[in-house]
Amino acid sequence: MASSALKYYTFFLFFILALILLSTLEVQGNTCQRKSKTWSGPCLNTANCKNQCISKEPPATFGACHRDGIGFACFCYFNC
């Protein structure tokens, strides 16, 4: 009986270790960011920045406002 419990305990530890290792793998590809070339003025609305990046700076997949110096700027994200 103790041998059976030891087998389940070992399997459980192996399973948890496998889950931890798999969760640390990077699922998506590399993403590069750069300051938007078409945005002017401070970036106060991330949704507008995202729309601008996707529509006017293809192949951008996303955009977001981030601190840049003393203000905020629109940054576009691309697949590297």
From TrEMBL:
Keywords: Antimicrobial, Disulfide bond, Fungicide, Signal. GO terms for biological process: defense response; defense response to fungus; killing of cells of another organism. The keyword Transferase does not apply. The keyword Glycosyltransferase does not apply. SUPFAM superfamilies: Scorpion toxin-like. Residues 1-29 form the signal peptide. Residues 31-80 form the Knottins-like domain. Pfam families: Gamma-thionin. PANTHER family: DEFENSIN-LIKE PROTEIN 1 (PTHR33147), DEFENSIN-LIKE PROTEIN 19 (PTHR33147:SF46). This is Defensin-like protein. It comes from Medicago truncatula.
